[in-house]
Amino acid sequence: MWVRSTMTYRFSFAMTLLSNFAATAFDFVVILLMFSQVRSLGGFSFAEVAFLYGATGTAFGLADLALGQVQRLGRRVRDGTLDTLLVRPVPVLAQVAADRFAPRRLGRVVQGLAVLVWSLVLLDVAWTPLKVALVPVMVVSGWLIYSAVMVAGGAFQMWAQDGSEVANAFTYGGNTLLQYPPVIFAQDLVRGVVYVVPLAFVNWVPALYVLGREAPAGLPDWAAFASPLVAGLFVAMAGLVWRVGIRSYRSTGS
Question: What is the DSSP string of 60-75?
Fold first, then answer.
């Protein structure tokens, strides 16, 4: 329904898609301006930073397209309209994700994917079949990890009622963090992103293997292939948190 209503005004859709593309591209413009003044960032070339940017940007864009509406769940909890979703014979998460579905968010996906493809052309890497296969696996695993964080953040709003910024700190904030090489950040922060909230498996860990660089925070080389496992654990944990959140929902009482 939302897709059909959006496509009714195709010029308006095209303009919003273009504006979404342009708005997200400003993050990459910052990187372009930075490399107009320096040759490397923490020892990473422009192509390598673009590779990190494109990988996390594409993964986050896919998750935002599919589940970006989950961040609005707090409003439904506060005004009691979540009740209408609970009585329908359709999974609540599917309804929340489809509510006001915004195809314009494809702009973020296209922009991230364009940078990723461009970086692959520029990279000077000794490609092997294993490294080639790791690139799409990394993007899909990152998509699942970001999606799981969004679902867990939505479930948190069952209790907090207005806690969307908590989830945004790990999704939008994590996406911004992972656009840059881990060597430019404090090691305590890197270890936290690797071992505490392992968002590093979105791109840092597998991407550094592709680039032939040392894994962050002392991880072994085989950890580059653990992203699907980490994504599976994230999804399982998010599903459990979501079920607990739904069961704890008590409506507004009015």
Answer: HHHHHHHHGGGGGHHH
H or E element, residue 119: helix 106-122
Residues β-bridged to residue 171: none
> Residues 167-213: pLDDT tens digits?
888 899 999 999 999 999 999 999 999 999 999 999 999 999 999 99
Polymer length of the chain: 254
The answer to whether the beta carbons of residues 101 and 69 sit under 8 Å apart is yes
Q: Please give the Cα distance from 189 to 166 (Å, whole number).
A: 17
Residue 44: phi, psi to the nearest 5? Answer: -100, 135
Query: Phi/psi of residue 90, each to 5°?
Result: -140, 140
Q: pTM above the 0.90 mark?
A: yes
Q: How far apart are CA 160 and CA 168, in angstroms?
A: 14
Report pLDDT digits (tens) over 88-123: 888 999 998 888 888 888 999 999 999 999 999 999
pLDDT confidence of residue 1: 79
How far is residue 251's CA from residue 186's CA, in Å, rounded to a whole number? 43
Read off the DSSP letter of residue 254.
-
Report the mean per-residue pLDDT for the chain: 90
The 3-state DSSP class for residue 102 equals coil
Contact yes or no for 120/52 (Cβ under 8 A) = no
pLDDT of the residue at 254:
53
In this structure, are residues 140 and 227 in contact, taking their beta carbons and an 8 Å threshold? no
Token duo for residue 50: 């673009």
CA 113, CA 117: separation in Å to the nearest integer? 6
- How many whole angstroms separate alpha carbon 50 and alpha carbon 207? 11
List of E strands, the chain: none
Max intra-chain CA distance, the chain: 64
